[in-house]
Design brief:
Layout: H1 2-7, H2 9-58
Keywords: Membrane, Transmembrane, Transmembrane helix
Length: about 60
Amino acid sequence: MKRLLLKNDGFISFSLYIVLIYLITVYYHFYNRYMMIIEIRSNLILIYENYIHQIIGIR
């Protein structure tokens, strides 16, 4: 068993490297989506606040 791991040491390192890159890209993908949703929500809140201020200002 030890010999098998020693012979494939480079392959295991390369595989772990690819898995780590994949996990990092998935993390950034969902992080960017989450931040985009927060930005859209905050923009909608500002739009509604401006609309309410216009209604109150008119009356």
